[in-house]
Amino acid sequence: MPVFNHVKAALLSLLIFTPVTANTIKPGEHFKIEDPADISAEQAEKLYQTIISRMKSSYALADYPAAKYYQRWQRFNAEPYLSEGHGNRYLNNYGNRTASNYLSLQPGQQMAQGAILAKDSFTAKKDGGLLPGALFLMEKLESGGKPEYGDWRYVMVLPDGAVLGDSEGANAEAMLFCHGCHIAAQSTDYLFLLPEPK
Predict the structure, then answer these.
(1) Taking a C-beta distance cutoff of 8 angstroms, is the pair 78, 41 a contact?
(2) For 163-194, how does the pLDDT look when each residue is reduced to its tens digit (9 = 90+)?
(3) Are 32 and 88 in contact (CB under 8 A)?
(4) CA triplet 74, 162, 172: central angle to 5 degrees?
(5) How far apart are CA 198 and CA 196, in angstroms?
(6) Which of 59, 68, 88, 157 is the most exposed place for a label (fewest CB within 10 A)?
(7) What is the phi-psi region of residue 132: left when phi exceeds 0, alpha when psi lies from -120 to 50, beta otherwise?
(8) pTM over 0.85
(9) What is the DSSP string of 31-100?
């Protein structure tokens, strides 16, 4: 299947399985969930544990080793947290060994080449709906490898395992908005650190 048709089909499935309204989609941002469940961190973790194996098997369909193995890496948060920046989805942050200094990163410091951070996501809705979301990957490239992106590679894997875009590969333009958001965190090498626990 040509890449364009594959991406078009993936977007269609995302629209079918993720309820949105006409006012929630704007250029350069994630599809926004209008009515996310307001749940405790403990409840979010319980929901995550019920859906994690489904997410793992779906992401593994993508042709990216990080999408298959990220759950073996260090998990930086104890419970999922709600991220408005990712469309009101609940997120978890994982990193490979090279990214082990993620939580201690100070302004002006940079991650080492080869560091990979993975954020999986899911939707928990007020009506009880629970759906897997996208997997967001960031990989630190060699110095000067992609200066317009702060030497980061961005990949987004949809809940069905289809790759929406890869800033170093197919449909790279779909990943422009990723760095457009992360540029606000330039002082910490374009990385947003974990939010304060509620």
Answers:
(1) yes
(2) 999 999 999 999 998 999 999 999 999 999 88
(3) yes
(4) 85
(5) 6
(6) 68
(7) beta
(8) no
(9) PPPSSB----HHHHHHHHHHHHHHHHHHHTTSS-HHHHHGGGSEE--SS-EEEGGGTSEEEEEEE-GGGT
Alpha-carbon distances of 9 from 34, 131, 160, 198, rounded to whole Å? 23, 18, 11, 38
End-to-end CA distance of the chain: 45
Q: How many CB atoms lie within 10 A of CB 126?
A: 12
| Residue-level pLDDT at 30 | 60
Strands 81-83 and 74-75: unpaired
Residue whose tokens read 């060994």: 97
Under a CB-based contact definition with an 8 Å cutoff, are residues 91 and 83 in contact? yes
Backbone dihedral angles phi then psi of residue 11, each to the nearest 5 degrees: -65, -40
